[in-house]
Amino acid sequence: xxxxxxxxxxxxxxxxxxxxxxxxxxxxxxxxxxxxxxxxxxxxxxxxxxxxxxxxxxxxxxxxxxxxxxxxxxxxxxxxxxxxxxxxxxxxxxxxxxxxxxxxxxxxxxxxxxxxxxxxxxxxxxxxxxxxxxxxxxxxxxxxxxxxxxxxxxxxxxxxxxxxxxxxxxxxxxxxxxxxxxxxxxxxxxxxxxxxxxxxxxxxxxxxxxxxxxxxxxxxxxxxxxxxxxxxxxxxxxxxxxxxxxxxxxxxxxxxxxxxxxxxxxxxxxxxxxxxxxxxxxxxxxxxxxxxxxxxxxxxxxxxxxxxxxxxxxxxxxxxxxxxxxxxxxxxxxxxxxxxxxxxxxxxxxxxxxxxxxxxxxxxxxxxxxxxxxxxxxx
Length: 379
Ligand SMILES: Nc1ncnc2c1ncn2[C@@H]1O[C@H](COP(=O)(O)OP(=O)(O)OP(=O)(O)O)[C@@H](O)[C@H]1O
Fold this sequence. Notes:
The protein is α+β, with helices and mostly antiparallel strands. It folds into two domains: 3-123, Phosphorylase Kinase, domain 1, CATH 3.30.200; 130-364, Transferase(Phosphotransferase) domain 1 (Transferase(Phosphotransferase), domain 1). The protein contains 14 helices and eleven strands. The strands form four sheets. A five-stranded antiparallel sheet has the order 1-2-3-5-4, with helices on both faces. A two-stranded antiparallel ribbon has the order 6-9. A hairpin with a 2-residue loop joins strand 4 (108-114) and strand 5. Helix 1 (3-16) packs parallel to helix 4 (87-99). The protein is globular, with a radius of gyration of 21 Å. It binds adenosine-5'-triphosphate. Adenosine-5'-triphosphate binds at residues 55-60, 63, 75, 77, 106, 122, 124-125, 128-129, 132, 174, 178-179, 181, 191-192, 376, 379.
């Protein structure tokens, strides 16, 4: 079966299953929409993919804002023909998103496959991605503490769904500020599943030579050994939390995780809170910084899973565990934690040895190091 027929099948099944979208905002629309968009429709919607309509550019290719004939605004991700990401990622993303529905995940509305053109059509999120506002000194002050806290909670819910509640277990592999889109009320939606990985059955992790992710967010055991588990997403989420609280990029002039750990050890972590905020709730901010450190623990088993993170954030009386040393990334992309110590601890080694052993040979290590050079440079 060719790509087009497979996609048609997926989309038909979805419609037949009544999975027409989030009941909040999409009910009814899918019934009247053809889930396959014609190239001409999308050309007209984007003024022939004009620069003025361009929202950004990612690993997949450019993203455009479009206005459909029925006045619905959409975001169109155009698969770049020169992109190293190809049909496999495209079909992966379509298939995954069709199976997933959660208010904290971006909604796929349809796709276009005509000749060499392959595109994904998403709901349009007017406040773009979190990085646009968080790292812009003129805008970041407008993102109040309560909104930041709600964004953190929304991302937790989205990740919890991906890791534990969705019909298929998914590791996103590229959680970062530019992959968190914001709707008109600044509710977060996790985007960009092109890198997501399907986990059949009860497997909890696997080893891979194909390392994907973004510098500054990628977990040490994954970057160094290709050891991939849901805890790699937890690590990236931890970095994201530190960015949301501080308004600083993970890889700025100094390393955010190192700075947080240094200040935390002397009880001065609140110095990290974004100065552009008019006010914040110190207890919540301190809890988030501590949570960020816990999620970035060097030892994989010492990181909480998203269920535990959700419980920590939802309870007023939860006492967070004291974090140990995080997986700090030194200059030149080298981690100060050795690979084996990142993967094992006295109470974690048995859990890990029950599954696929992490790779450790020199040859494998150097092959992984080469793969890492294709990691995005922290955007
Ligand atoms: N549904 C959407 N609504 C509004 N803006 C969007 C939407 N999807 C993407 N964008 C914008 O387009 C930009 C590029 O998105 P894309 O997901 O392709 O790449 P990225 O996440 O920035 O980078 P990479 O693909 O390398 O991880 C985003 O930063 C965002 O501002």
